[in-house]
Description:
It is a single chain. This protein has 442 residues and is mostly helical. The protein has a single domain, classed as MFS general substrate transporter like domains (Growth Hormone, Chain: A, Up-down Bundle). The protein is 75% helix and 0% strand. The protein starts with a helix and ends in a 15-residue tail after the last helix.
Amino acid sequence: xxxxxxxxxxxxxxxxxxxxxxxxxxxxxxxxxxxxxxxxxxxxxxxxxxxxxxxxxxxxxxxxxxxxxxxxxxxxxxxxxxxxxxxxxxxxxxxxxxxxxxxxxxxxxxxxxxxxxxxxxxxxxxxxxxxxxxxxxxxxxxxxxxxxxxxxxxxxxxxxxxxxxxxxxxxxxxxxxxxxxxxxxxxxxxxxxxxxxxxxxxxxxxxxxxxxxxxxxxxxxxxxxxxxxxxxxxxxxxxxxxxxxxxxxxxxxxxxxxxxxxxxxxxxxxxxxxxxxxxxxxxxxxxxxxxxxxxxxxxxxxxxxxxxxxxxxxxxxxxxxxxxxxxxxxxxxxxxxxxxxxxxxxxxxxxxxxxxxxxxxxxxxxxxxxxxxxxxxxxxxxxxxxxxxxxxxxxxxxxxxxxxxxxxxxxxxxxxxxxxxxxxxxxxxxxxxxxxxxxxxx
Length: 442
């Protein structure tokens, strides 16, 4: 493997490391930051009511606003990746989300008569409004790095080594969540945001020496029409089915992270688990990503060993289903905290086919549409956390908001829906192991 190719793999892996660090940072500091930002709104509420308010604001800021920014950014960066190049998107997205997270460390209620009083004119005078805006901006920035990095690496590496290279990128990147946990334990939530943003800005120093994809350069020189046109993902029907199949197989990943793990404290409370044995959200995310890192390595290597992406996805969907059964039986067995975290590690391992998913997304489309597909697909999956969160809250109201067990029952029903959609997507998936990527859609 050439030095320039190795450097591209390293930059993509480190970029994804910072991407995941910043993507999950809010979830890890959700309670600490919102307690400070919301302040008086929490006064007078009992512990359960405070947890529900923090949960609702967390769903809004993370599952809705940040993931909506991911969808918008996925389209923007994807189109730019196919029109301007993979490298411009890779480093442009890192710059945007890094600046947004640095600013997030300084949010505060602003004096209307002070030097920053103009923020009131645009509706951002309060800390919570600034939080909302910056979560959207960060989401837009976070949308570009993974798709651009995976596309670049996939096009630079030979077909027989492609799965290994993308697995390295994903496995190293996933460790960003583990690092994020330890940072949030050692520093305040504001400092954690500054560290996350600073890591991204420091990574920009590596932009020199990374080469552009030769496949993309050839397509650009040929002046092929329709490069990066989003509508081409929707037509003809065969291409739309191909795209939807890729997206659907990954829905359980962000359902598990966005509902079962991020809000594990609320769900286990509704199971009747004693307070001392309930997981802490930040630690739960860390243990989930320990499992996810192992799963990414195993699923990626399995897809190489079996010479089949489809087989690897099927196997890990099965492990995810077993993990979910164990998770929703926790209320019956009333486990110790260690057992609960072990189940969360198993869930993380099961959804650790993210590396295979992003590789498959790149392999399913031609060079003239690859960055658009490989960037929008992961961000649609991330945005599905908003859909999973909305379904969870809908089923909770349907069961009865006053029913103590409603949160876990609603989460379980949501899981059935999500897993069913993933199975449908798997049946529409092509086998792409070892295929050449030097082709265009037309």
